[in-house]
Predict the structure.
Amino acid sequence: MLCAALLVGGTGCRGAPDARTRFPNGNAATGPAPLADTAADTARPASPPPKAAMLDSGTVALPDSQRRALLKKDSLWQKALRVHYRALVFDGHADTPTLMAEEGYDIGPRHAPAEAHLDLPRMKEGGLDAVFFSIYVPSYLGEGRRASARARRLIRTTKQQLEKHSGRAALATSAEEVRRLARNGKRAVLLGLEGGHALAASEDTLRALARQGVRYVTLTHIGTTSWADAATDTPRHGGLAPKGEDLVRAMNDAGVLVDLSHASDSTFYDALAVSRAPVILSHSSARALTPEARNVTDDMLRALAENNGLVMINFYDEYVEQPGGGPAALEDVLDHLDHAAQVAGVEHVGLGSDFDGVPRLPAGLGDATRLPWLTYGLLKRGYTAEEVYKILGGNALRVLEAAESRAAKPERDDSVAAARRR
Ligand SMILES: [Zn+2]
C-alpha cells in the first residue's frame, strides 16, 4: 500500500517531509539481473550498496530449498535476497543477555523459535550482522547498588558468551568495528543499557559503563526514576529533571547514545532540547497506527528527524497490532516502518526487534531468520535498494558515528550548548 496512515484514517502521510512518489511495480523492471543459482555468484551485485552500509560477503544464507521456493514464487525475491544479504543489517534491541544470565542460554547452537528468537546460527541465516544486546535492569531494583550490580552481571555474561564463540561473534563499540566484523563474516554485538536507573544518577557510573562498552542508555525502563519520567508510570518531573539534563550531556560527552524508548513524551522532548547528538528509540513503533504509550506520535517523529535521530521499529505484536486489523503479522511491522519513513523520512527509521524480550511476535516474523521477508516487503512497497540499505542498518551506523564524533570534540559543542543555555 502507498500510505499506511491513510488506511487507518490518519493524515500522517500528507505533506510529510519525505512525501514522494511510490513505484509499486517498478522494481522488477529496473532491478538487477536475476540471481545465479549458486551462492558464490550472488556475491557480485549489479550495483554496489552505498559505503554507509558496507557489508559482508553477500552470501545468501537461507537454506537452498527455501531460497529456490522463494525465487519460484516471485521474481522480486531475486533482488530482495541480493539486497538483504549485501546489507549490513542492524537490530537496535534484543533481550538475549537476560536469557543468558537467568537460564544459561547459549547463543552458539541453533534453538527453536519457541525457545528463543535469536542465536548465532539464526542471525547468520537471517542476514543479521549487528545487534544491540539489552543490558536490562528491572525497575524494581531501584537506583542503588543492586541495579548497577545487575548491569555488570549481564555485561559479564554477554562478554563470556562472546569469548566462547569468538570465531563467530565479537563485541563492537564503534561503527567501524561493526563494519569490520561484518566484512569478516562475524556477528557484531553491542551493549545497550536498558534502564537509566542503573546509573544510580551518577555520571561516574555512566562513564564506567561506557568504558565497559555500553553505547546506549534508555533513560528509563517502565518506572519513573529520580531524574526522568517513564511512558508507563506516574510523571514526577514533567519530563527530565535537571539531573537528567546533566546525564544526557554526559552521555553526549561519553559517546553513548541517548535512547528514548520507554521515556515519557515530555522526557522525549526535554532530552531532544538538551542533547547535542542524534538520539534514538531503540525499540518503539508508531502511535498513529497502534495507540500505545510506548510508541511515538507523528509529532515526535518529525522532531526526531530535526534531531537527525532514529526510531527503530519494535516488532512486539502489541505495539504493531492495528485496531480492527486482527492478530499482528509481518505486514503490520511493514506498515509501521512505512509510516515512520513517510512522516520522519527514510533516514530516520531502523529495526528494533525486541527479540527475546517479548512473549509474542507477529505472524511471519517469529525469529531472526525471518528478516529477509522485511526487505522483500519494503521493496514490494516501492522502496529503492538504497532506501532499504538505510533502514536495515545504514541509519544505525550513521547515528553511532554521530555519537562518536560528538564525543571526540566535546569542547566546541559544549560552548555552543552553554551559549544556548544562557
Ligand atoms: Zn524495552
